[in-house]
Amino acid sequence: MKEQYDVIVAGSGLGGLTAANRLARSGHRVLLAEQHSQIGGLATYFSRRRHIFDVALHGFPIGMKKSLRKYWGPEYAACIVQVRRIVFDNPQFHVETRFDSGDFTRLLREHFRLPGERVEAFFQALRAMNYYDDRTETTGELFERFFPGRTDVWRLLMEPITYANGSTLDEPAISYGIVFGNFMSQGVYTFLGGTDVMLRMMLETLRTNGVDCETSARVERVLVEGGRVRGAVVNGRPVACRAVVSNANLLRTVHELVGDEHFGAEFLSGLGQVRLSNSSCQVYIGIRPGERLPELGDLLFTSTHPVYDAEALCARQVSSRTYSVYTPTIRPGSDRYTVVASMNARHEDWAQSDRQAYRLGKERLIEETLDALETYVPRIREIADYTEAATPRTFERYTLHPQGASFGTKFEGLASSMAISKQVGGLFHTGSVGIIMSGWLGTVNYGVMTANDADRYLAGATGGR
Ligand SMILES: Cc1cc2nc3c(=O)[nH]c(=O)nc-3n(C[C@H](O)[C@H](O)[C@H](O)COP(=O)(O)OP(=O)(O)OC[C@H]3O[C@@H](n4cnc5c(N)ncnc54)[C@H](O)[C@@H]3O)c2cc1C
User: Fold this and answer.
1) pLDDT for 209-221, tens place per residue?
2) 60, 44, 19, 10: which is closest to 395 by C-alpha?
């Protein structure tokens, strides 16, 4: 770490990584400071007994290919491959899909027996949606308008999106329309080689572009003087800079890293309305070398709950799980199979338990997941040789996100995130906010937008109040 930079990026989630790369490519001297010992934020992986577990690589829209090519390089785009078999299994239906508009149209007409013109009108309404449109209609109202009373159709359309960004039927239809529309263009994609390969490539690119990448480096404070950023304290050491891009959670950035005294009353009042998204639990299952998994599909949305219910999806008594199945094809050269079960979860359900209760809670989570998976893989207990669980406390610990928020903030967070630079000159925020700027694609794109703003600031040094 040097004593001075043009810009410090606090946090190496996909938003922070992409912003750092973009700023370095524009010729700025960049420090990327990550508090954890590994880069990636939620887009991470871990290794146990030669198994590699991907934490947040279940699927993203095709737009990721273009964004990676443009902002990271063609070698990244070449690794984007389609997730082909997506299966839904719940009390209302069992279907398999490629998760694109053509296949969904077929399903809605043939399996759900909806008139073709109704389905076409729904997709047209999605295509016509624009971020600046009327935001009063909720997703629930949108569904009721096109598919009144069809809770089975609502489930097909909504359950994967709730897993993908924590949104519910009560959120603005526009946020649903943009995210669902992104997937519907060409289906669901993943990164060939896994998260570990992608992060290694990113680290190399950043270093080639001159970024100083420091892990186990916590930005404790952003130093502000005369309404402008002058530096940051990293692991107790002041480092001078003209701008800070914070990839830390929006609320922590304002209240803890910068301090309320540097923000106007109106901004703080708006920020006071911003809700955090829910958190997650996961169970990681490694399959013994030499054993194989049966053909399950690549992504399985399973539930025993009678209907789509956002509250039930987060409940401690788990009734719905998404399984990501990783076969050797995703990691060429490997012979390993792993399964990652993901559940939406609430921090408060895990926060209070003492050490012993917490350990037992994790064991129960693993056992119940294995019980549920036996429906699809009857020999799972025989062929699994490693299991591990993550809870909202795990996510909080490794990312510092309050309450282990998996997808940043709800929709309203975007306005505050974007307004931050008008409060303090040289202060910028990037990272999961507002549903649209969440997920791998949303955070990469938001990282670029924020870097462009920071670049303009560094060129002209105007900003703040
Ligand atoms: C279980 C799960 C599954 C998911 N699956 C998918 C999926 O399949 N597809 C998809 O598109 N999205 C998925 N997501 C969402 C996606 O991973 C995230 O939206 C995205 O990776 C978040 O990027 P970010 O830029 O907001 O940063 P984050 O990943 O939130 O990272 C922020 C970083 O900042 C660091 N930091 C915080 N404070 C400080 C500080 N003071 N100093 C230094 N560093 C700091 C943290 O340690 C962290 O590394 C999933 C998320 C979860 C939790």
Assistant:
1) 999 999 999 999 9
2) 44
